[in-house]
Design brief:
Blueprint lengths: L4 E2 L13 E6 L10 H8 L5 E4 L1 E2 L22 H20 L6 E6 L2 H9 L8 E5 L18 E6 L7 H14 L4 E6 L8 H14 L15 E4 L7 E9 L4 E6 L6 E5 L3 E3 L2 E4 L2 E10 L5 E9 L6 E6 L11 E4 L7 H4 L5 E7 L5 E5 L6 E3 L4 E2 L1
Parallel strand pairs: 2-3, 2-5, 5-6, 6-7, 7-8
Antiparallel strand pairs: 1-4, 9-10, 9-13, 10-11, 11-12, 14-15, 15-16, 16-17, 18-19, 18-22, 19-20, 20-21
């Protein structure tokens, strides 16, 4: 039995830790990579979502397929083996990104909808949702009470000659028999066997409502935090965060200076100006040095000495620098920590509290409780 080939490059997000996972399952003869265009379109509404794009192995006829059928229409065993492998991959991604089933949705087009239904409707707990596009669901499912709580979007086309509305209507009736209570079934009059712009719009609306972590819950730089902007050919400018526009992933910055104007700036165009405390003196964090394991080896801070006209830069051990509460940093060098913390490596965090033992309590995206971390694991 050939194993399912998962794309090595799952799509998005690039600059943040994912808040949800959507599994896109292609139709017969296609590949997961051909659904990247769909993922790109959906990511405009769901910027924090990661998309998993598996590819089915070639079947007996040489076409990539999730299953074959016999003369009576029964599915062969390959779909159940591929289902097992797919769920292993999803479990791995959920552990890696600290996601719950309620943050995972399944979308299947044509033949891929059979595997999507197999995956989404037999879980012990409800997932975020199931989307069936121009397809159906397996007739025999070992469903649980979670089915009644699972949102389902079922879209078919009246012009579809591959999977006719007669077939999709039977699948709809079967879902209702099994106990589906949150099923939305649509027959689009001009839809062929395709994912049209109208379908993409319906899917994006469904996922926006279904994914609890897809909305404005990202770790962001808080209002009032000082930042420095650098542009080629210009001197560094400073300002303070004064709002965030999620749809554009940009911050409003209230600029310093006599005019005090306000600019909308991409997050990659500035850095936080971390004012710290060092032995009672005010200092600014200006650099860092990483150890081989990804931990902070030392921090560079600029200190204004009394009666000095220039700032003196010092290399300081991370535990000697008191970082400002509210700053947004990244975790690094967590691979040698306790196993429960290793999956947090690379995550964005917001500093919430300085603890008496010198560690920090940080807010991690996707975690309900604050996490205690050592200063050497906080990467500016």
């Amino acid at each position: 039995m050939q194993k399912v080939e998962l794309s090595s490059d799952s799509f998005g997000p690039c600059n943040a830790f994912p808040t949800s996972l959507v599994v896109l399952l292609h139709g017969r003869g296609d590949t997961g990579r051909n659904l990247v265009g769909l993922a790109v379109q959906l990511s405009k509404r769901l910027p924090g979502t990661r998309f998993l794009l598996p590819t089915a192995p070639p079947g007996p006829h040489g076409l990539n397929s999730w299953y074959e059928t016999d003369h009576t229409g029964n599915l062969d065993e390959r779909i159940y083996e591929l289902h097992r492998q797919l769920m292993q991959q999803i479990q791995f991604d959920c552990q890696k990104f600290s996601l719950e089933l309620a943050q995972v949705a399944f979308l299947g087009f044509s033949q891929g909808s059979m595997l999507a239904g197999l995956a989404a409707l037999q879980l012990s707990r409800p997932c975020a949702g199931l989307i069936v596009l121009c397809g159906g669901v397996p007739w025999h499912l070992d469903v649980t009470d979670a089915l009644s709580q699972t949102p389902i979007l079922f879209v078919s086309g009246k012009c579809d000659r591959t999977v006719t509305v007669y077939t999709t209507r039977m699948a709809q009736e079967r879902l209702l028999e099994l106990g589906a209570q949150q099923l939305r079934y649509l027959e689009l009059p001009d839809l062929n066997h395709e994912i049209s712009p109208k379908v993409v719009e319906l899917v994006a609306d469904f996922l926006w409502a279904a994914l609890p972590q897809s909305k404005d819950q990202s770790i962001r730089i808080p209002d009032g935090m000082k930042v420095s902007l650098y542009s080629a050919g210009y001197e560094a400018r400073t300002g303070a965060i004064d709002g965030f526009v999620q749809s554009e992933d940009k911050y409003w910055v209230q600029m310093d200076g006599p005019d005090g104007h306000r600019e909308l700036i991409e997050s990659g165009a500035f850095t936080q100006q971390l004012h710290t405390t060092l032995a009672g003196q005010s200092a600014i964090l200006v650099g860092k040095r990483l150890a081989d394991d990804g931990c902070i080896e030392s921090l560079s801070v600029a200190v204004s000495e009394p009666s000095a006209e220039v700032l003196e830069t010092k290399q300081i051990a991370p535990h000697r620098v008191q970082l400002p509460v509210g700053a947004v940093l990244q975790l690094g060098g967590m691979k040698k920590c306790a196993k429960r913390l290793q999956c947090l490596d690379g995550r964005r965090v917001r500093l919430r509290q300085v603890l008496q033992d010198g560690r920090y309590a940080v807010e991690v995206q996707g975690e309900e409780a604050l996490v205690r971390v050592h200063p050497r694991h906080l990467v500016p």
